[in-house]
Amino acid sequence: MREVLPPVKAIAGMCGRQTVKPECNRLSHHCLRVEVDEGELWYHTMTGSLVLLSHDEVSAGGDAHDELVARWYLVPEDYDEHKLAQQVRQTSKLLVRTKPHITSFVIFTTTDCNARCFYCYEQGRPRRTMTDEVAHDVAAYIARKCGGNDVRINWFGGEPLVNYRAIDLIVADLAALGIGVTSQMTTNGYLFTKELVQRACDTWHLNSVQVTLDGTEDTYNKTKAYVNAVGSPYKRVLDNIDLLADAGMKVNLRLNMSTHNEQDLWQLSDKLAERFSKKQKVRVYVAPLRDFTSNTSAYGANEDLLAAHSKLQGHVDELGISTQSELKSALSVNRCMADSDQSLTILPDGRLGKCEHESEERLVGSIYQDELDQEVIKAWKQTIRVPECQTCLFYPLCVRLTWCPWCAEGCTKATRDVMRQNLSRMVRNAYQS
Asked: Cα(289)–Cα(296) distance, rounded to whole angstroms?
């Protein structure tokens, strides 16, 4: 047996090494086994330990057995692993140092957009654009809350480049106050120009961009339905992806998958591989479209779509252009920015929230008030448990929030299959690196 990644130090300190006993023969619920040419990779989702077992060790056990027991890969038949994971998570929460400052912001420069995607979850919401005055006030608010620390900003919308002037003003004000900024952007990519790309590098300190693609040229242009588009938006966006990557930015291409474009995305992935395979800054992942117009999202309800997603993501992996996601370094104690005390969203009018997908609901305050609504913040942290958690491989990595629209569909076998595929890819990446 060969160690690839040691257990996370803090978690190993809490769990210790399991006492070796003859009855420790059941594979842990928290062990993911991934086949590789040399044998099998075993990854423990609670401890973070990753080991490689040879083919002989997998089939016969032998000398590896005692070490696998000590590392919690093998446990007694009746052992309650779920209870242990709960205890470790609770202790981990107590050990997390509460930071007094807010250093991560998702800023909506506008809720307007130059595209009219039929699936946009922001349809029907007011279209607002941040004024110069509010942009200056946003920078002042960030300066008050960050405690002089560097901040990370995700420029969001709408389409943030519809109002890139707000970016200019906020970044300039923060620089004048001596506050360092690194930023990323969620964008359709259409409005970038050579000059804006240079500004993004030199002034905005933009190092990562996410761009959504919906299909090959005809499908993409129809789906995006850009307002006042000139020429082929598809060709322009691909050219802009080249510009961004050549400027040194990481570009994540999100392929939004639904029943309308499922087959077309296979052709698109081949075209992307042909064009960008030599550009390591450009990576691709597939995302089933979610429907936030009803109580049950299309993501969880349409198992056929999830199965198709798994096949296409596997194809993207084989093409060598998939996003290289990394394994988490510890058991998850929170889900995302919504239940983190260090993050806020800022709307164009200065209102504050906790989730970019709930941009008009469940807000927590305003940049013009010093105090946040602690009751709403507390509510964002409320979690859901379902019966499947008891023996679920992903429980140590999965935090499900009551208010999160991503969790509304419950926990289905199809969603767990997608999670298994994604985690298996991360395990292989960790081994190969």
From this structure: 12
Least confident of 258-272, 289-303, 317-331, 390-404: 289-303
Give the pLDDT band of residue 99 (cuts 50, 70, 90).
confident
Packing angle of the helix pair 233-246, 264-276 (nearest 10 deg)? 40
The pLDDT value given to residue 306: 78
The half-sphere exposure of 372 on its side-chain side, counting CA atoms within 13 A, is: 25
Q: Is the pLDDT assigned to residue 294 strictly greater than 90? A: no
Whose CA is closest to 234, among 275, 206, 205, 203?
275
Which residue, 361, 353, 375, 352, is CA-closest to 141? Answer: 352
Do the Cβ atoms of 82 and 395 come closer than 8 Å? yes
Instruction: Please give the helix or strand (H or E) that residue 313 lies within, else none.
Output: helix 303-319
**Segment holding 251, helix H or strand E:** strand 250-257
Q: What is the pTM of this model?
A: 0.90
Q: 242: part of which helix (H) or strand (E)?
A: helix 233-246
Among 428, 378, 398, CA closest to 89: 398
DSSP secondary structure code for residue 430 in this structure: H
Nearest residue to 170 (alpha-carbon basis) of 192, 158, 187, 153: 153
The residue type of 108 is F
